C-alpha cells in the first residue's frame, strides 16, 4: 500500500488517467472516522466485485492490521481477498472518476474510515459495473491500460479484447450481508496463496459473458 492525499490526482499504476482522483489510500497516515449512510456498503460491494489492475502480491496496511494478516470479504455468495486490486467509481454528475484500493471496504467496515462526501455520493448514485455508462468508462480508460500492463485476453465467446477482471471466487453459500474476516497466516502459506490466484474470471464488455483465464 501507499499514501495519497484525498482527492489528489491519481498517478499510481499509470501516469495518466484523465480526471481520476485518489480516495482511501491510507498507509501510515491518520484519517477521518465516522458512519457511512445506510446502503453505502451494499453499493460499494458492487465495485469491489469488479476490480481493476489486479496484482499477484497483496498489500497490507501494517499500521492498522499488522504484518501477518489477510483481509477477506464474504458477501452475497462471493469471497474476495482484499489488497491486490483497485476499484473505480464514476461520478456521472461531475464526470469524475475515483480510484481506490479495494481495501477501502475493510477500512470502512473495520476501522470506521469516512471517505469524502463526493466519493460517498458517487458510490450511492453513480453508474454501477455492467451498466452502459460504467462500461464505456472502463473500456476507454481501464481496459487500454490493463492491456498494456498484462496483454490482451480475448473473449472466448465473441472474440472482443474489451475485457476486464471480474469476481475472484464464487461460494456455495449466499450471504446477504458483507462480512470481513481478518485472519493470520504463516510464511509457508505463500505457495498456497499463489495457487488460489492462478485463475481469474474476466468479463467481456461487448457480450457481457464471463470466462476464466490463467493469472
UniProtKB/TrEMBL annotation:
Q: InterPro entries recorded for this chain?
A: DUF7919
Domain of life assignment: Bacteria
The residues covered by the DUF7919 domain are 2-124
UniProt-recorded name of the protein: DUF7919 domain-containing protein
Native organism is: Anaerobium acetethylicum
Q: What is the lineage of its organism?
A: Bacteria, Bacillati, Bacillota, Clostridia, Lachnospirales
